[in-house]
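ARCHIVE CARD
CATEGORY: sequence design from structure
SOURCE FIELD: tokenized fold
FIELD CONTENT:
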């Protein structure tokens, strides 16, 4: 990403960031845009997230395989319709937008993810570069944005069998798609330090149980990162809504 662009914004936005509170009170952002992959759209849309918060202040654009390294080069995601309110399967249904400033959001929640098998993005340095580029793309398309909150994908359970898994318990050992590697969290923290006020690290969200994910077969528990078909996206949407309404991050579903 064009580092000068982000650096210039950071100082200016440090003071303004204080007005971007989490809850749905009068000084909350008039419009928050959620960006992510299709699994993000599952808790937003099928989970009914907009009905659980002040939906007039939230909207989303999610896309299959919208990996973190592609936000700066894939132009289609920026021009596609906003996601529906749900519970219609994305991308069906009528687009849902903020009541005000739908095309000029004040805050963006960017959910970063990539194929865990992609060796090019298995380091903190690579993730920092990808995040820089992605935030630069956000600023380019939405100069109105005062704050970008960086989230990872929803993780497997925080606690399983009495053991704590900060990156999430891997519900399916054959895959690595419901856990978050430490270098991703470190990259997000590093970006927030480099660009105070503009970039903030979001909470780490966890499913309560492997069964929240969609089942990998009729006889096996689910595995992430997908909630549908057959999973429980509404449970995850409720945990997300609890945080974005009140700012309360309750373990074991949410960790700051």
């Amino acid at each position: 990403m064009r580092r000068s662009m982000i650096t210039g914004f950071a100082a200016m936005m440090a003071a303004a960031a204080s007005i971007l509170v989490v809850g749905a009170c009068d000084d909350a952002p008039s419009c928050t845009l959620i960006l992510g992959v299709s699994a993000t759209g599952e808790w937003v849309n099928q989970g009914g997230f907009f009905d659980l918060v002040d939906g007039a202040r939230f909207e989303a654009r999610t896309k299959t395989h919208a990996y973190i390294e592609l936000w700066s080069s894939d132009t289609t995601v920026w021009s596609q319709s906003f996601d529906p309110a749900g519970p219609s399967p994305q991308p069906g249904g009528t687009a849902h937008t903020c009541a005000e400033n739908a095309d000029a959001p004040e805050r963006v929640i960017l959910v970063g993810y990539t194929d865990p098998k992609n060796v090019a993005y298995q380091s903190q340095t690579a993730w920092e570069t990808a995040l820089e580029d992605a935030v630069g793309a956000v600023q380019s398309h939405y100069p109105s944005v005062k704050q970008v909150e960086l989230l990872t994908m929803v993780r497997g359970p925080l606690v399983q069998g009495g053991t704590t898994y900060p990156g999430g318990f891997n519900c399916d050992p054959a895959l690595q798609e419901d856990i978050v590697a430490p270098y991703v969290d470190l990259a997000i923290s590093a970006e927030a330090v480099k660009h105070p006020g503009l970039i903030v690290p979001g909470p780490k969200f966890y499913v309560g149980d492997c069964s929240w994910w969609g089942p990998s077969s009729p006889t096996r528990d689910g595995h992430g990162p997908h909630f549908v078909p057959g999973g429980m996206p509404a449970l995850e949407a409720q945990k997300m809504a609890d945080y974005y309404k009140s700012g309360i991050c309750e373990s074991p579903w949410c960790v700051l």
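CARD ANNOTATION: Residues 1-19 have pLDDT under 50 and may be disordered. The first strand starts at residue 32 and ends at 37.
SHELF: design records, drawer C
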